[in-house]
Every structure is written in C-alpha cells, then in structure tokens.
Design brief:
- It contains 14 helices and 13 strands.
- With 392 residues, the chain is of the alpha/beta class.
- It has a 7-stranded mixed beta sheet with strand order 2-8-7-6-5-3-4, sandwiched between helices. A 4-stranded antiparallel beta sheet has the order 9-10-13-12.
- α4 packs parallel to α11.
- It is globular.
- It binds 4'-deoxy-4'-aminopyridoxal-5'-phosphate and glutamine (GLN).
- The site of 4'-deoxy-4'-aminopyridoxal-5'-phosphate has 14 residues, from α5.
C-alpha cells in the first residue's frame, strides 16, 4: 500500500511540465507552457543585479519587503484605480503559492469551492488537499460566458469560495462588466469569498484598465486578489507573486503563507518593487510586442486554414481543431504534433476535469516572428498529413 497521501499517489506531472519535457526531448518549438522567449528587460536585470550586489541576502520579512508591498499598492492605484494599503498585501513565491496559501487558509474540510473550467491546474488539487470539494462550472468556447443559471445550480449551503481567473487562461477572455457584476452579486447573496486569480490583469490588449472582482461593490471584504510579477514583466521564472485582501483576511492567509515558503528571495523583491514603480510608458512597448505577436500568429494560422478563437489577453490563443478540419481530439493532436511536427501546444481539455470540449488547442504567441512563422508552417504540414492519413 502506498504511504503517500492518496491525492499524490497517482498524480501525473502537470500538462505544462509534460509538454515542455516533450518539447525538449524532441527539439520542438515550444508554444505549450506559457513563457515569452524575448530577452529580459535590461532594466529589470540591472535592478536585480544591483540588489544582489548591494542589498541583504538574509531573510526578508515573511509578508514581503515593505518597499515591495508599497510598490504593489502604487501599481494598482495607478493602473487600476484600486486603493490598497500595505497591510493588505503579502508577497509570495509566485501566484501559485498565493493560491495555495489562500485555499489552505479559507477552505475547511467539507467546504465546496466553485471553480470555472477550463481552470488553472493547481486549483482543484489544492482545494482537495485542504479537505474541500471542487465544484466545476463549465465555460464553453468561443464566448466562454459566465452563466448565472449554471452557477446557481452549482451553489449549495456548503459552498464557501468561488475561484475566478480573469482574464482567463487558456481562453484569453476578459469578463465583461455585467459578468463581474453578476459574480459579485452571487458572492454577496451566498456569503462567498472570491479568490480572484488576476495574474493576467496586466497582459491585456484591449486598452481597458483591469477591473478586479475585488473592486466590485461590496467585494473588498470578501475577496482575495492574486497577482504575479512573472506575467507583468514576462519573467515567469522569478516566481514573485502576491495576494491582497482586507487586513484581517490578509493576516490570516499570511499565516498559511508563513509555513509554505515563509518568504521570497530579496533581490527579486527589490527588482520587482523598482519595476512596478515604472511609468505606464515603460510597460507599453512590451504589451505592443505581445499584441503584434498575437496578430501575426492568428493571421498566419488563418491564412493556413486554421480557425482561430479571439484572444483579448494573456499570451495564448486557441485553435478550433474541429472547425479547422482536424478529426482527432486536442490531446491526440498535441501529443502527436510535438513528436511528428516539432510543435508543442497545450490541449485545453487538460484544464477540464470530466466533461469539456476536446477540440481546442492552446498556443503561446509570446515568441519572435520567425519562431511563430515556422510553427505555423509545421502545423499546416502536419494537418495535411492527418488529412492524408484519413483518406488512406
Ligand atoms: N494562475 C494562472 C491562471 C496562471 O496562468 C499562472 C501561470 N501561468 C499562475 C496562476 C501561476 O503564476 P506564478 O508563475 O506566478 O506562480
Ligand atoms: N500557467 C502557465 C501556463 O499556462 C504554466 C505554469 C506552470 O507551468 N506551472 O502555461
């Protein structure tokens, strides 16, 4: 009998790790796991280098450097008109740790947690590890609409939290004002706490400032907002994240955080603080580069006969395989394309438990033009091979 906790006894590596491993093994272009391949910003590297040379290498405070906590408040005030105080912000080792601390602190044994599928892969396992039950509400392409009736059906007297990822990875969808109002209304009426996974808040291409569910009327006291420097600066390996909540809630979740990682490397905290204080004009060119890459990939795919879903945010866009004349499902396509075509992708069905669409493929577009062009050429050739197979 396994001595492991049953949750981990048969657990597979994440789809992101799996596909990146295959990409390396097969020398494939990696449009799977989300990370940009552009050189890092020299300003950020210089700031981190300076911090390594000049600042302390010993434990920072568990809740984060005060300077970074203040910089996070300043960033949200400037870019989202959201007023937070230092005691509402706790720095974590990536958003993944912020999610873990929040779920461990809020979900009690027997509680139910609503999550929308497709869902970031850590939500459900963390809810289960906390003794809770994830209850899924399915979103469907191409609109990925939040449906008030489906949500109402999922809520029971045991429902305690609702996890919202907006903008939504893998769909690139941004919740409308009406959807946010509906979700806030549901949280207030059923006394739910919203865990707002806002990591993609600053990777938006619609020129609209992000509005968090936490910023909706009556939500400040019942929401936890999670952010990530990895996405804001395109530096996913830094793993500097944070959560923000009302002071008492932030304190309580901070107690869970103190026994997960306790704290986060100080040099990266200093550099993130410096980065967050930069003016909007400093952030704009990187967003423009990502938007251009998105358009290039979408147009090339369409020219090659693929049906592409719209993407207003994140580094991802979706291909509708079925509508593109591909008869195999997303998992098969992904597993074969990385080996046979040399392109890694993410099958969106991997972000569903149980029932979900099996015909959407996620591609990361935060790559240089030559890489994107080559990937499309390879995918188009691969699709033609599949067509020939079917006729044979
Ligand atoms: N939530 C979502 C929706 C994400 O897409 C990601 C990373 N891709 C994370 C959380 C984790 O962020 P971090 O790398 O800062 O842990
Ligand atoms: N969430 C990232 C993505 O969507 C991957 C994060 C990870 O690998 N843990 O690609």
């Amino acid at each position: 009998m396994s001595r492991l906790h049953p949750l981990y006894a048969a657990m597979e590596p994440t789809i992101f790790e799996h596909m990146s491993g295959l990409a390396t093994a097969h020398g494939a272009i990696n449009l799977g796991q989300g990370f940009p391949d552009e050189p890092p910003s020299p300003d950020m590297i210089e700031a981190a280098g300076r911090a390594l040379r000049e600042k302390s290498h010993q434990y920072p405070p568990s809740f984060g450097l005060p300077e970074l906590r203040d910089a996070i408040c300043g960033f949200y005030a400037r870019r989202q008109g959201l007023m937070l105080a230092r005691e509402q912000v706790v720095v974590t080792s990536g958003a993944t740790e912020a999610l873990a601390a929040t779920i461990l602190a809020l979900v009690r044994p027997g509680d139910e947690a609503i999550l929308f599928q497709p869902a970031y892969d850590s939500y459900a396992p963390m809810v289960r590890r906390a003794g809770g039950t994830p209850v899924s509400v399915r979103l469907d392409p191409p609109a990925w609409r939040y449906d008030v009736e489906a949500l109402a059906r999922a809520i029971t007297p045991r429902t305690r939290v609702l996890i919202l990822n907006d903008p939504l990875n893998p769909a690139g969808k941004v919740a409308s004002e009406a959807e946010l109002a509906m979700l806030a209304d549901v949280c207030r009426r059923h006394d739910l706490i919203a865990i707002c996974d806002d990591v993609w808040e600053d990777v938006r291409f619609d020129a609209v400032p992000h509005r968090s569910l936490l910023a909706m009327p009556g939500m400040a006291e019942r929401a936890v907002k999670i952010g990530s420097a990895g996405k804001i600066f395109g530096l996913t390996g830094w793993k500097v994240g944070w959560f923000c909540a009302a002071p008492d809630l932030a304190q309580a979740i901070g107690r869970a955080h103190q026994f997960l990682t306790f704290t986060t490397p100080p040099a990266l905290q200093w550099a993130t603080a410096e980065g967050l204080a930069r003016p909007d004009s400093w952030f704009a060119p990187q967003r423009a580069t990502w938007a251009t890459a998105r358009d290039r990939l979408a147009q090339n795919l369409e020219r090659a006969g693929f049906v592409v879903l719209p993407s207003a945010a994140t580094w991802f866009l979706g291909i509708d395989l079925a509508a593109s004349g591909i008869a195999i499902d997303d998992r098969d396509f992904s597993e074969r394309a990385v080996r046979e075509a040399g392109v890694a992708s993410i099958p969106v069905s991997a972000l569903f438990e149980g029932d979900g669409p099996r015909h959407i493929l996620r591609l990361c577009f935060a790559k240089d033009a030559a890489t994107l062009d080559e990937a499309v050429a390879r995918l188009a050739r691969f699709r033609d091979t599949l067509g020939t197979e079917r006729r044979a």
